[in-house]
Amino acid sequence: MNKIVFTGFIALLSLLSCSKQVAFVPSNSANPWKDDYKSVSKMENYRDWGTYNVHDPACKKLGEYYYMYSTDAIYFDFSERRSEVKERPVPLGYIQVRRSKDLVNWEFTGWAFPEIPDEAVQWVRSHADGKGAANIWAPYITQHNDIYRLYYCVSAFGRKASYLGMAESASPEGPWTQKGCVVKTDDESRMNAIDPTIVTDAENGTIWMCYGSFFGGLYGVELDSETGLTKQAGDQGHLIARRANYRIDNLEAPEIIYHPGLKKYFLFVSYDPLMTTYNVRVGRSDKPEGPYFDFNGQNLSDTTNNFPILTAPYQFDNHPGWAGTGHCGVLREEDGRFFMFHQARLSPQNAMMDLHVRQVFFTPDGWPVVSPERYTGSKQQQFNSADLIGEWEVIRVLEPVRERKLEAGQVLSGEGGLNEKEWNRSVHLVFTKDGKIEEKGKWNFSKQKQLLNIDLENEQIDNIFVFPGQDWENEKATILFTGLDKNGRSIWGKRIK
């Protein structure tokens, strides 16, 4: 054979050999931060609170940064208290503010307000026997032309004495000018003026705010685009969602987002006590003001518990687990991707509040599901059936079983740890090359759609999303999956071997 031809032949063989796909294997990949933040919990360390002390987050892409605003809730693991820190040179304020360029690394920039607005304090304490108004809850950010509007609420725990206000600024980092009250409530009101979320009607530009809590449910009210306040003075809106025994069965934290491809509005809500069994449900509507319907066609304003359930307390192996996985914000990227932001409490004490950012997918039936793991910026890639062969940890995300005494929808003091029945723990499944799940069922995978179908113990679960991500508990880059069963319960998985 001619030497040149032979050399070319060898080169071609080498190229073919190199191009042969190697089946995916989980590989080492360090987590971007630790979950336990006791070492930086003091007020003087506030600049290190990137993903720490996050509670009730709301996030928007504003300019070159993603900005996040959250309740001024702080974990203390030392003897000093907030009042003692005020004498120190720390820029203590209200509404925590963070920013990020990649949704992974977050910079704590400080607090939005230097103090709680006096009008809010006066309203709450005059209707709550002089109590409450100790911090600011559940902010929400919007933009109107070149002005940023920051909505917030001040309240008294266990009371409907609440003030939902709004401030404006020319910058997402402030300074902020108070513009007044949007909605205020007292113990005689049907609803509770906390937890705002705002959405614009994609067809006519009408602006709607949804707000509320376990007291009476969630309400929707139209806002004036020019003022950012209610279109009709004193309007408290109409009922959108509630639960049957609302004084015990907690419902709060609405978040409404619009999906332009589906032409649907999605209302995310949180159920149950925030320190323990907090979990996220969702309904959808053709209009921002509702009515919203769930997975089974039930109106969220009826008293039926709703599905799908997207998050709930969970524990993968090699980790103490997460409670309080609720009060979410949701963001739509310009490229069409969606992300969910929520607090999660590190077990077993459930006192530390970490930010969880999860990618959101929408099933062929038009329902959202979320990643089982936090987002770390993994690049999208296509998988083959061979990549799924191996051992998986799988969690069925089920609604918690409540057998506790509660106060104002929350667990009693000293009972913040999870009970055994409140956990969603993982099981191990082995996917074999002949399409079987060892001793449990069978599986098949569509490379074109990147969707997994499984028959798990005679239960068929189809259209499960498969995508790359971080195995946070084992610090490895791996394959993840998420989907919904036929009853609207989420199923999560990650390949571990």
List keywords for this structure.
497 residues; mainly beta; Tachylectin-2, Chain A; globular
Give a written overview of the molecule:
The chain is mainly beta. It has a domain at 49-382: Glycosyl hydrolase domain, family 43 (Tachylectin-2, Chain A, 5 Propeller). The protein has three helices and 34 strands. The protein has helices spanning 3-19, 82-85, 118-126; strands spanning 27-28, 58-62, 65-70, 94-100, 106-113, 137-144, 147-155, 162-169, 177-185, 197-200, 207-213, 217-223, 238-241, 251-259, 264-271, 279-285, 309-311, 314-315, 322-323, 329-332, 338-346, 353-362, 368-370, 390-397, 406-407, 410-411, 424-425, 427-431, 436-437, 441-446, 451-456, 459-471, 476-484, 490-495. Strands 1, 24, 28, 29, 30, 31, 32, 33 and 34 form a nine-stranded antiparallel β-sheet that branches. Strands 19, 20, 21, 22 and 23 form a five-stranded antiparallel β-sheet that branches. A hairpin with a 4-residue loop joins strand 32 and strand 33 (476-484). The longest helix has 17 residues, at 3-19. The relative contact order is 0.11.
Assign a percent range to the helix content: under 10%
According to CATH, the fold-level topology of the domain at 49-382 is Tachylectin-2, Chain A
Q: What number is the mean pLDDT?
A: 93
What is the CATH level 1 assignment of the domain at 49-382?
Mainly Beta
- Morphology call: globular
Say how many strands there are: 34
Intertermini distance: 46 Å
Query: CATH H level of the domain at 49-382: which superfamily?
Result: Glycosyl hydrolase domain, family 43
Decide which structural class fits the backbone: mainly beta
Main sheet: strands, sense, barrel: 9 strands, antiparallel
What is the rounded Rg?
A: 24 Å
Unreliable spans: 1-19
Report the sheet-strand fraction.
35-45%
Work out the helix count.
3
